[in-house]
């Protein structure tokens, strides 16, 4: 069924998005050691990088 494939793709996308957010948060926390401004900047930079990678993946 067409709807089942769309649901699987939706949940796969949500799962990938959650994984990306967890990885970027963990890397930012590890890299900065809880410095608020640098944590925010690194989080934004990593999010842009991971979004660009996911955009170019099939």
Describe this structure in words.
This protein is mainly alpha-helical and 58 residues long. It has one domain. Helix 1 (2-32) runs antiparallel to helix 2. Helices cover 90% and strands 0% of the residues.
Write out key terms for the chains shown:
single chain; 58 residues; mainly alpha; 2 helices; elongated
Give a concise summary:
The chain is mainly α. 90% of the residues lie in helices and 0% in strands.
Which structural class is indicated by helix and strand composition? mainly alpha
How many separate structural domains? 1
- Tell the overall outline: elongated
Task: Spell out the helices and strands N to C.
Answer: HH
CA gyration radius, whole angstroms: 15 Å
Range of strand content: under 5%
End-to-end distance, in Å? 22 Å
Mean pLDDT: 71
Low-confidence stretches: none
Count of DSSP H/I helices: 2
Number of DSSP strand runs? 0
List the helices and strands and how they pair.
Elements: H1 2-32, H2 36-56
Helix pairs in contact: 1-2
